[in-house]
Design a protein that fits this description.
Order of helices and strands: HHHEEEEHHHEHEHHEEEEEEEEE
CATH class: Alpha Beta
CATH topology: phage-related protein like fold
Mean pLDDT: 85
Number of helices: 9
Length: 309
């Protein structure tokens, strides 16, 4: 059974340190907090993605049915290796205490979490074969719904958002930038525009916004301080790069899931022989899989303007 990282951390009863690392890793990213991960064997997952359902019909007496089968497309998702080494100088530890190592480790974990979140949205194996393809690369064709046809983008119509939600099979979450979420907050103050915005606690008890009962996951800056979902995407028909996107996702066993071989690994390598530093290595064999082509929809070409009904 697939578990979110927060749920997995609760099961790490024999290793409180690893449990803390997993929880910190997930707590630094709304995506990682909510995305379920399925443990797989080996270094890749092979599965069939449903494309077309088999045909059905009616028959008369003494007539035969026309045989028909569904179409399944074979897919392969390879695991990637995410992680990093953290070195803390022995001088710092001797003069300022061993807690400085924990502080630096926490910063490293948050950086890895934010870097992973960027790849979840913007990853592209054509640019770097060591990463996985993110949602922007994977979502194509009818699963892209445009906010409008204006070069430069269009103000988000909640009718268009509802259309994108309907286009998604069993939607569970909306993913957007904080700037986009602020537009929802403004719309919520106008009942005629955003009357379907609600608030509820997440897995860590924090208050989060929802639209039509779909929790909103916000992504902000990556580990280098760059916006992950800025209003700099190309708009309709290769228009100007002034648009933004909202992703409607189905984080379910038959939809969008993370995959991993084992949980996040943390190793204390001790003091190095080649340098007076203590090294900690964090590694995670992971990836993502979309089991149904309608599990993710991208609402694109949204301008940074107030929403309309």
């Amino acid at each position: 059974m697939a578990l979110t990282l927060i749920e997995a951390a609760k099961l790490e009863t024999g290793d409180a340190y690893r449990s803390g690392v997993i929880e910190l890793y997930a707590g630094s990213s709304g995506v990682l907090m909510n995305l379920p991960f399925d443990d797989i064997a080996g270094n890749a997952l092979k599965y069939n993605r449903e494309s077309n359902l088999p045909g059905v019909g009616f028959r008369g007496v003494n007539e035969a049915y026309t045989p028909s089968t569904g179409i399944l497309n074979p897919m392969t998702e390879a695991l990637v290796i995410a992680g990093g080494d953290l070195d803390v100088d022995k001088f710092i530890l001797d003069t300022m205490g061993m807690n400085q190592r924990s502080v630096q480790e926490g910063m490293k974990i948050r950086a890895l979490s934010l870097a992973w979140t960027r790849k979840f949205i913007k990853g592209d194996t054509a640019s770097d074969p060591r990463e996985f393809d993110g949602l922007q690369t994977r979502v194509t064709g009818s699963q892209i719904v445009w906010a409008g046809t204006t070069s430069g983008g269009d103000a988000l119509s909640l009718v268009k958002l509802d259309e994108a939600i309907d286009q998604t099979l069993n939607p569970t979450h909306l993913i957007m930038s904080k700037a986009m979420a602020r537009r929802f907050s403004a719309a919520a103050r106008l009942y005629t525009v955003g009357g379907y915005v609600q608030y509820a606690p997440d897995a860590l008890g924090r208050r989060v916004m929802a639209y039509n009962d779909l929790p909103i996951i916000t992504v902000d800056l990556d580990n280098e301080g760059n916006s992950i979902l800025p209003f700099t995407e190309v708009t309709y028909n290769n228009g100007t790069a002034t648009g933004g996107s909202i992703y409607i996702v189905s984080m379910t066993p038959d939809g969008l899931q993370g995959i991993q071989n084992g949980t996040i690994g943390v190793r204390d390598l001790g003091e190095l022989q080649t340098a007076p530093v203590y090294r900690t290595r964090i590694e995670w064999y992971n990836g993502i899989a979309i089991y149904n082509g309608r599990a993710v929809t991208r609402l694109a070409g949204i301008s940074n303007a107030p929403f309309v009904a």
